[in-house]
Each structure stands twice: as C-alpha cells, then as structure tokens.
C-alpha cells in the first residue's frame, strides 16, 4: 500500500522568504502548486523539486520538500537521475523559457522523448528576467531589449509545438492569472504517468509587463482564448456562442453548435500540433488547456525492468567485482 500523508498548503511552505518582484506571476504559480500537492496525499519526503537557473528556479527553496537547484539548462538530466535512483519519488521540474528552451533545449527534448515520469512546469514570460531583460527563445519578433535594441529578428519558439515534436505524452498550457484553470491543469499533469509538460504564461512585471494581456487579461480572456478540454466541444466567447472546426490542416471559427469535439488522445499528435499553430494567427483564439494526453512506455520503468531482469539472471553482484572485471593494467 502506498504511503500517504494528509497535508495542508501551509505544510508545503518552507521557512524561506519568497523573493520575487512584487506582482510577479511566480507567486500565483507557487500558491497553486502548493494547493494541489497538499491534496494529493503524497508525503513531503516523497516529493522533489528540481530547477535550473532563472527566476523560476528559486522554486525549490519555497517548497517544504526535497529540492535541488541545479545548473543552467541541465535540470532535466538531474531530474532523470533522481527518478531513476528512487522511482518512489514524485519529481517536479521547474524551468523557464530561457533555461529550458535555450541552453537547456537539448535536455528538455530528451526527457520528453524518453517519457521519464517527471512533471515539468515551464514558466514562459518571453524574456530573460534574472539576467535583466534580454530577449529569450520565445520573445516575439520586433521585441526591443538590451540585446535586441532594434528589435529581435529571431523567430520565436512555440513551447507546445516543441514538446509535441519531441513526442511528449502530456502537453498543456495555462495562465498565471487564471487560478482555477491552472490548478486543474496541474492536477491533470500530476495524475499523468510519464513526462508531463505544462507551459504557463507568466507575467514579468519588470522587463516584459503585459506581454500576454491581449489574450490573458480577464476582460478579454473568454473571447481571446479557447480551453481545450478532452471530450468537450471547442467553444469559446463570453456568450459561448463561437466554436472551432478542424478542416484538414485548417481551423475555422464556426457557430458554437457546430464546433468539433476536442480529442487529446489521437494516435497522431497532428491535431494538437495544428491547434498549437493558432498562436501565430491574431484572428484566432489562443489555445490553452490540454493539447495531448496519451499512454506510452515510461523510461524509468523500462530501465528498472532491465536491471531486475539482469539481477534475476546473474544475481545482484558486487561493485568491487565490477571494478575488476575485464582487461586490467597497472600503471607504474
């Protein structure tokens, strides 16, 4: 029987002062994570938060669980090792658009394709915040920053499209100011077996304030976003009177009554990828919610199955015997 522990949100708050800029979206994400994790019944000593470098990477300090503040872009490698070493742990990885998609893009790609049982929170504010306002891999074309004074000419990464292209088995998106939606999305990620990536639109009040206001601000959110809920019609708008229809590789706005039903479990990631590409069309609602959720072999389970098979065949062995196996030579 799995070990359980009744917790409150307060139990998951560490004794460290939370130090983000006043108004930063990270506060809301931390609050939501502590809230949903308290209700899962997982003991604190069975949870680990791993981060890389960036504003988001302060996260482990503020969780009263085990945690590791690792190195720039390499948090997926550390998280993979932790899950392999102790598969009973619930491992969460916290990263940002700079840490995860620039120097860490290679590592993020591999943890997703391997389907390691780790939950990944990617805070996307389309800027480098900790290093004081340089453009990031997700910054929009034309954004003027300290490293792009005439406007960025880089085509930005789409984190959802990237994750789908890596074969991720769970991909979702939520917004820091949409608390109920964020909590439901994090709960869905926590329940998934395998890699679960959640992109979170997170506002940087100092260096990129209001970057998502056009879709995320409460007064426009109903009209400018569409919540992808598996098994539900793709309907949006304050009056819930508009919907989306997928026709081949095109998505069209239609009356709500003729909207297609969303499926996140199709064998192909094609429909989810098509929806992720709506980000580039200002005339279409921005998709949030659950893009993809499918079952696939889990990397850490596969590794342990091989280890157990080898032990059953040859015995547990001793480390000393391994060191002295094979060709040996002496350096004098």
The CATH topology label of the domain at 10-211 is: Rossmann fold
Distance between the termini: 55 Å
Number of strands: 11
H-E string: HEHEHEHHEHEHEHHEEEEHEHH
In CATH terms, what is the architecture of the domain at 10-211? Answer: 3-Layer(aba) Sandwich
Give an overview in words.
The protein is α/β, with parallel strands linked by helices. The protein has a domain at 10-211: 3-Layer(aba) Sandwich (Rossmann fold), CATH 3.40.50.970. The protein is 31% helix and 18% strand. The protein has helices spanning 26-38, 59-62, 75-85, 97-103, 105-114, 159-165, 179-191, 213-216, 218-224, 270-276, 299-314, 319-323, and strands at 47-51, 66-69, 90-96, 118-124, 170-175, 196-201, 225-228, 235-236, 242-247, 250-255, 286-293. The protein has an eight-stranded mixed β-sheet with strand order 2-1-3-4-6-5-11-7, sandwiched between helices. Helix 3 runs parallel beside helix 5 (105-114). The N and C termini lie far apart (55 Å). The mean pLDDT is 96.
């Amino acid at each position: 029987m799995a070990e359980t522990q009744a917790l409150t949100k307060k139990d998951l708050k560490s004794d460290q002062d939370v130090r983000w800029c006043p108004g930063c979206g990270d506060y809301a994400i931390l609050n939501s994570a502590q809230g949903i994790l308290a209700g899962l019944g997982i003991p604190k000593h069975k949870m680990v938060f791993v981060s890389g470098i960036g504003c988001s990477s302060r996260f482990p300090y503020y969780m009263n669980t085990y945690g590791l503040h690792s190195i720039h872009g390499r948090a997926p490698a550390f998280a993979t090792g932790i899950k392999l070493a102790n598969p009973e742990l619930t491992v969460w990885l916290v990263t940002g658009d700079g840490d995860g998609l620039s120097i860490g893009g290679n590592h993020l790609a591999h943890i997703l394709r391997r389907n390691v049982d780790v939950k990944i929170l990617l805070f996307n504010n389309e800027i480098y915040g900790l290093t004081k306002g340089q453009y990031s891999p997700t910054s929009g074309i034309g954004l003027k920053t300290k490293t792009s004074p005439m406007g960025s000419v880089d085509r930005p990464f789409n984190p959802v499209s990237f994750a789908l292209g890596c074969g991720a088995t769970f991909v979702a998106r939520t917004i820091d100011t949409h608390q109920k939606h964020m909590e439901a999305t994090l709960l869905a990620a926590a329940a998934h077996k395998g890699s679960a990536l959640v992109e979170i639109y997170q506002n940087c009040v100092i260096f990129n304030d209001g970057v998502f206001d056009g879709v995320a601000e409460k007064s426009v959110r109903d009209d400018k976003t569409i919540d992808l809920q598996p098994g539900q019609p793709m309907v949006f708008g304050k009056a819930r009177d508009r919907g989306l229809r997928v026709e081949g590789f095109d998505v069209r706005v239609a009356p709500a009554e003729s909207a297609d039903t969303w499926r996140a479990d199709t064998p192909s990631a094609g429909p989810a990828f098509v929806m992720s590409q709506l980000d580039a069309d200002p005339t279409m609602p921005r998709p949030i919610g659950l893009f993809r959720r499918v079952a696939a072999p889990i990397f850490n389970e596969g590794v342990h199955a091989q280890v157990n098979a080898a032990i059953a065949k040859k015995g547990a062995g001793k480390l000393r015997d391994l060191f002295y196996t094979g060709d040996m030579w002496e350096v004098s």
